Amino acid sequence: MIPEFGFFALILALMLAVIQSSAVFIGLKTNKSSYVNLTFSAALGQFVFMLIAFIILVVAFVTDDFSVAYVAQHSNSQLPIPYKVSAVWGGHEGSMLLWTFILSVWGIAVTLLNRSLPRLSAARVVAVMGMISIGFIAFLIFTSNPFDRILPNFPLDGQDLNPLLQDIGLIIHPPMLYMGYVGFSVAFSIAIAALLEGRLDSTWIRWARPWTLMAWVFLTLGIMLGSWWAYYELGWGGWWFWDPVENASFMPWLTGTALVHSLAVTEKRGVFKSWTLLLAILTFSLCLLGTFLVRSGVLTSVHAFASDPTRGVFILGFLALVVGSSLLLFAVKAHRMVTTGNFQLVSRESFLLLNNILLAVATVVVLLGTLFPLIADVLQLGKISVGAPYFNMLFVPLFIILLIFLAPSPVVRWKKFEINQIIRSSIPVFVASFVVAAVINWIFSNEMSLSIVMVSTLVFWVVLNLFKDILVKVKFKLSLNSLLKLSSSYRGMVLAHIGVAMTVFGIAYTSTYSIERDVKMNPGESLTVAQYQFEFARTEPLKGVNYRGTQGVFNVTKNNQLVTTLRPEKRIYNVRNQPMTEAAIDAALSRDLYVALGEPLKNGAWAVRVYVKPFIRFIWLGGVFMALGGFMVMMDRRYRLLKKQHAGSQVADGGVVTS
Amino acid sequence: MTPKRKQRVLIIVLILSGVSGAVGLMLYALQQNVNLFYSPTQISDGEAPIGPLIRVGGLVLAGSVKRATGKTEKLSVTFVLTDNNKQITVQYSGILPDLFREGQGIVALGRLQKDRSILATEVLAKHDENYMPPEVAGTLHKSPSAMHVPSTNQ
């Protein structure tokens, strides 16, 4: 009976979402202010029923209720409890439930933390979020009900969770990613509400920035976790494949990054207003597009699990409705957004504009590469796929240009600046960066690679310029105290940009200096890769909770000193009889040692994958820095999102938060 | 022209030239890196070009997977792909994915050789054992002219 309650909860949530999205507009028409409050109450109610539905599904998984079809397909009584919980989002229906639940979480957060905004404006934002909820709850109810039963002959045990998903990375990666995806619905709703209202003043922007940053932080972490998971779990050591589904998350990240920057300009200088609104709309539209691509199975992708085409049609219809109506609204209303500032060609505004253009171009590159196979298919040009070289060929120059302009940007002032000043202040730092880059390259590889020196010069140029700017800001009195006096948003900016530099550095070194060997090895044999000797000592049988298999033991030595012992595994999961490679990795900042077992060959030999990957950790560490930076900007005093909550409603309606 | 106008024109020119440059580059890159998909039947009928990187998909024929024996370090393997109509031999050197097994639908990326075999640089099997690559599902049992929008199984 309990799973049926889950379904009822979804239906109730749908009804409340309808009220949430319409009450404020009815109130406006009929001049009843109580309707405004109804919007907030409905949002609260919607959250409660989504929570109930979600908990009921979790309980169904934990208690092995295999009469529920979704549980039977994605769980098994042998599955360890943490994986039973994460199996909730291991398949289509459950991950859509998580998506929609997270949407209601953002809805309730906006409902509770909106005191700095006029009440009517806040109600409009919550109402727009309600409209998105309607679409997704209806999607769940009509096409993807996770509470469907198999009655009366339900299976005695489940078909198990895909072994690839039985991993810590997959417990946290989807919720993080969804927090990011769905989080941009707030920025979107703010943009729509601002367009409806016909104004976008500094109160709006100030209020929109932390929400957008929070979504961006989650999306950054989500993508980073996904890349890290793919690296160690897929068993072939890549960290990015330009797979359509990865691209689907990368596109909103690119526009989201542009949005975070253009919001900063709009807040400080009152320019780029319509562009900011358009970016907010586009970012969320790309999130919806991503959901469509993943959930419809139209594209060949490692993530494309068997799926049902009617769902794709539903999401495509919803996507068309959302994008179409919001762009129409934008076209009709955007001209009312009056720009209040102006700026010269050489100014911080221009630099940020350039950042936005480059990120927009990058988005178009990914969009074209991702959708081209679909377009070609519709146009009967044959079944094609776009290879990784396409993306690499375009992304490398784009990001080099981005870095060239990012590096000197800390010194550039708002409104007007002299190009000579930029050159004068940057050249010494550039020379220093070149020396550092060349020396590091020489120490690392005993040679100079032109491309590596070039890219890492830019990387150090970015970092050293930031350091120099900090020194100037604290008047060359570097201490913890003086650093803490800098504003949180400034420190966050520095951290995030250092993160970008780290990621680029990691990518450059890893892709140039990684050594990858796939070989046949017998126990007792060794293989030399870089300065490391990998000795395949022996294999041992392996027995886990719900799998069995073989474990290889590899002793890694360098100059006859034991560095580490790696134990890669080849697991066979009992229920599906599905093999799984568990790579063994010895991680360090400067290099990863990576060993994975391929398949067993004749006479006890194994196919073995041995990699040495320099500086690969920098790729994800850079992501952590970016996210941390974004978080710090969000915590800046002038937004005071969280403090407002504790302080209660001290600020009168329509009041502007000042710090 | 006033200085302000001049500046605006300059910005617009910059943006336009940037965008057209980017689009040009994009199309060039796309042209270079698009891989067409062929079924074993199409390859047998001589529709696929010899030389460029192509993708071929089908079911791995039972009993056709042969690892090279001998003392080499190399991991050479050959197997046969079928669409239940025609067959094509694939040569590959390296580790096969976990879900590569006989009867499974897979996609190989490689170059067609003069002897009508494929020298693969990459072999892809998807992460779900029930999953069939849409292209493969679309070509099974069918004549090549009947290829439509990819249909998914299940």
3D architecture notes:
The complex is a heterodimer of chains A (659) and B (154). Chain A has 659 residues and is of the alpha+beta class. Chain A has 4 domains: 1-161, no CATH class; 167-406, no CATH class; 416-508, no CATH class; 515-615. Chain A has 19 helices and 11 strands. In chain A, helix 1 packs antiparallel against helix 6 and helix 7 runs antiparallel to helix 8 (202-233). Chain A is globular and about 85 Å long. The two termini of chain A are 53 Å apart. The model of chain A is unreliable at 642-659 (pLDDT under 50). Chain B has 2 domains: 1-34; 36-143, OB fold (Dihydrolipoamide Acetyltransferase, E2P) (Beta Barrel). Chain B contains 3 helices and 7 strands; from the N terminus they run αβαββββββα. With 154 residues, chain B is of the alpha+beta class. Helices cover 27% and strands 29% of the residues of chain B. Chain B has a 5-stranded mixed barrel. Chain B is elongated and about 80 Å long. The model of chain B is unreliable at 143-154 (pLDDT under 50). The chains are: A alpha+beta (659), B alpha+beta (154). At the A-B interface, helix 12, strand 1, helix 13, strand 2 and strand 8 of A face helix 1, strand 1 and helix 3 of B. Strand 1 of chain A pairs antiparallel with strand 1 (34-38) of chain B, so a sheet runs across the interface.
Indicate the low-confidence ranges of chain A by residue numbers.
Answer: 642-659
Give the count of helical stretches of chain B. Answer: 3
Query: How many separate domains of chain A?
Result: 4
Summarize the amount of helix of chain B as a percent range: 25-40%
Total beta strands of chain A = 11
Strand percentage of chain B: 25-35%
Q: Helix- and strand-based class of chain A?
A: alpha+beta
CATH topology of the largest domain in chain B: OB fold (Dihydrolipoamide Acetyltransferase, E2P)
Ranges of chain B where pLDDT stays below 50 over 5 or more residues in a row are: 143-154
Radius of gyration of chain A: 27 Å
* Order of helical and strand elements of chain A: HHHHHHHHHHHHEHHHHHEEEEEEEEEEHH
Task: Give the tally of β-strands of chain B.
Answer: 7
**How widely separated are the two ends of chain B?**
66 Å
**Amino-to-carboxy terminus distance of chain A:** 53 Å
Radius of gyration of chain B: 22 Å
Shape of chain A: globular
Encode the helix/strand succession of chain B as letters: HEHEEEEEEH
Assign the CATH superfamily of the largest domain in chain B. Answer: Nucleic acid-binding proteins
